[in-house]
Structure formats: structure tokens, C-alpha cells
Amino acid sequence: MSLEPASTLGALLAQRAAAHPRHTALQWDGADARWQRLDYATLAERAHALARALPVERGLRVAWLGFNHPAQIALLFALALRGAVLVPLNHRLSPAEWAAILDDCAPLCLVHDEAFAEPARALAATEGLRAIAVDTLDTTPVEPLPDQGRPGDAALIVYTSGTTGNPKGAVHTQAHLLANLAIAAPAQGLSERDTVLTALPLFHVGGLCIQTLPALSVGARVLLHRRFDPGAVLDTIARERPTLTLQVPATLQALVQHPHWGAVDLSCLRAIWAGSSLLPAELLRACHARGVPVCNVYGSTETGPFSIALGPEHAQEFAGSCGWPAPGVEVKLVDPQGEPVARGRVGEICVRGPNVVALYWPDVDAVDTEGFFHSGDLARQEPQGHYVVVGRSKDMIISGGENIYPAEIEQLLAEHPWVAECAVVGQPDERWGEVCVAVVVLREGAPDDWVSGVEAALHGRLARYKWPRQWRRVDALPRTALGKLVKPAIRAWLVSQR
């Protein structure tokens, strides 16, 4: 059903409740029966009930700490109705890291689920906040409240992962979120006939904004898992027959390696979308062999995140690419001086669009004077116009005057049957300035002389100056909640091993 574009999140929810009142919006695998299945009319009722239950005013913040829960989505809409702001906390952070975020954004209260009741109460007591258990919130239907939201109101503050420094709160306005929905939904071909499986955390824009909110914006059904479990995801695919799901390399690997992977009928999935700049070739082959294209979305906390996308029509031909700029999004690659680079040359990805945030909380510029967000990611644009990410600018290694991009080496190493996962980082060297060090997690059964075997696979595929000069074997690599490598931690560990 085609509707006039909504100017606020409250108006969007009202549209969907009117158009699809008894169509299932959210189907949840949690234990609280009140939230296990919400149709669009009930989701709207819950949003208005929460808006009345919480004493918020325009601009005030409310923090959320918990696993994925329909109440988190209802709370986003509820606060938007008041012109207020949701601040989801990464539940994998430490109490000190939670406290730093709360100190930064000063929320009115902290809403939490049962799993995080104890740390939430302790955190609230320390920070002088009110802790509110989600199961105590009054969800009794109320007379719908007038929509006080405005397009320019902040609606969501998402803190960056902090892999290169202190986290910063990216301020997404209602207009930013709506623009991202308008970009992401048609790019994925979403409609009310779709069923989307969400198992990635909603505290991140990937789990919330790539598929979940876009699906709700068109009246689709969302199957919401409290947290990712590969067996539960495969069981849901077999039972509920979703048409789309979003994964990241770490979760996709867990699915492919699960004993039931080969037995589950995947024909219901028209695509698996991946929120990652780099996808291991092995995982792509495993999915494509099952007849499911793996599409890719490039973006960041600050860019919606739907910025560059590789759709199903190009998924196999351009496997490993991020694709082309999404409609309405501008992308340019620049050198360290900020000048555009020629096609085929490596440059930093800069993104401008209606879904790109302008500020970090409270009023720090997130974009340059022309409105471009500088991502810190390095990529090159291929002749056909698509983009291939080669790494982070801070990860680039300069050895003997040559630029080396770790992602190129990591992709080759990851294809080796003995390598489960790997990271390549630079370490100081008196002769070369820097040299490449490969930190590797090996698969069971790898021989003791694994280094020579892995090096042999690089012959003829990688220039010798790019080869790792040192190799380190570890049991696991440090990663963020969404599976991104935390390379500063790897470098620090290497220093400690000297």
C-alpha cells in the first residue's frame, strides 16, 4: 500500500496502524506473553501507553539496557511522540563504560529488562537515575496522544563502538531515521508481504536500522530474537519461513558451521543481507552454494547506516564488493589532503545524504563544512562504479615506503583451510618502518608447521613486500558486539609479548 511519506516517527506508526491494524508487526521469542506478538494497532497502543507512562519532555533522554525486546522499539516510537530521545546501551560493555555514556548524555531514567535488572539498579544508584523494569511499565491502552514530534527532533543517540577512542553519541533525528527507512526499504525490495528475521542487537544501528525499522515502515512482519543463537535462527527459518535476514560475518560463520546448516530448507530466503564492509569469500561461497545471495550494506553508526549497497542482482558477480551508493546518498573517495582520488585509486570513504547525522552529542560536528562524513575507511572504486573496501586508514601499514592494506592480506589468509580467522596489523621495524604481523586462529587439525603451509598459499597471489614478517597463533581475536576486530587490542597484546 502506497502512503504519503510521514514527516515524524509518530505519524509513520499511525499510518501503519491504520493500514495494517491486525497484521503482525513483531513476533518475539521472549518469555513475557504481553510482548510475544504485537500487531500494528497494538504496537501503536503500546507506544502511546509508554509515552504517557514516562514523564518525558522534548529533548530529554531515556536509556535502555537489555537484550532485544519489542518494548525497545515501542519506546523509540513513544519517545518520538514526545520529541524525546532513546539511548540504547550496548549490553556487552562494562559498568564503567555504561557509566561514561550515561555521564555524557544525562538521561532522565534507565529502562531495563529482567536479565539486566541487577546491573541496571546498581548503575542507576551510582548515577543518580531512576531504574525502571520494563515489565513494570503500564501498557494499558490510553487515548492516543497528540504527536509532539518534529522532523528535526533528536530521536536516537547511538554511541560508537569506541575501537579507536572514547565512544561518541551519534545524534539521529526523526528526519534522519525516516530518510534511512525511505532508502533502505526499497533497496531491499521490502513490502508488507515480507517476514524479516532480526537476531542482531538493536542497540546498534545495524540491527535496528538496516532491516528492522525499514520492515516495520512498510508493514512487514519482524521475527525478533532476544539474542543471536545459530540453532534458534536456523529453527526459525525452518518454522517461520522468513524472506530476509541480516547477519554479520561472525554470525554468518556460526550459521554455516552449525550442524543443521545443510539440513534446513533456505528456499524461503530471497537474500541474506550482511552489515559489513568485508565479507570472507568462504562464507559467500557457502551461502551461494545453497542458492541464497548474500547482499552487502556498507555504513557506520553515523551514516544511517544504509549508505552503499550490493543488491541480490549483483551479489555473485561482484562478491566481496560493497556495491553502489544507495539512492540519495553521495559517496566520494579522498586522499589525506581531502582531494578526490582517481577511479581505481585508494581513498577515504566520505558520505553525504539525508540519513547522515550532523552532530555528536551534544553539539559536536560529525560532518565537514560540505556535509560529508569522513568514515576513516579506505576503498577504491572499480571501473563498473562499485566500491571495494580495503581497510581502515589507521590500519594502513607503510613498509619500506609502500602502502599495505591489511584487508587484502586477511582475505587471502581467510581462504586457507587451516585458518579460522585472522588479523593483520603493523608493528614498528628499524629497517622497514613497519612490518606486517599476522595473528591467526587456526582450525582444529592444523599441523605444527602451519606457517610454511599458509605462506605457500600466498605465492603468486600477493606481492612479497606485503607478506607478514611475523606470525602469531592465538585462541581467539578480540571483537566488538557486531563482530568487528578490535585492532588496538591486538596491537597492545603484541607489544606485551615482546
Automatic annotation (TrEMBL):
Pfam families: AMP-binding, AMP-binding_C. Residues 14-361 form the AMP-dependent synthetase/ligase domain. Residues 408-484 form the AMP-binding enzyme C-terminal domain. Keywords: Ligase. InterPro entries: AMP-bd_C, AMP-bd_C_sf, AMP-binding_CS, AMP-dep_synth/lig_dom, ANL_N_sf. PROSITE patterns: AMP_BINDING. One of its GO terms (biological process) is fatty acid metabolic process. GO terms for molecular function: medium-chain fatty acid-CoA ligase activity. The keyword Hydrolase does not apply. SUPFAM superfamilies: Acetyl-CoA synthetase-like (SSF56801). The keyword Kinase does not apply. Belongs to the ATP-dependent AMP-binding enzyme family. This is Long-chain fatty acid--CoA ligase. The lineage of its organism: Bacteria, Pseudomonadati, Pseudomonadota, Betaproteobacteria, Burkholderiales.
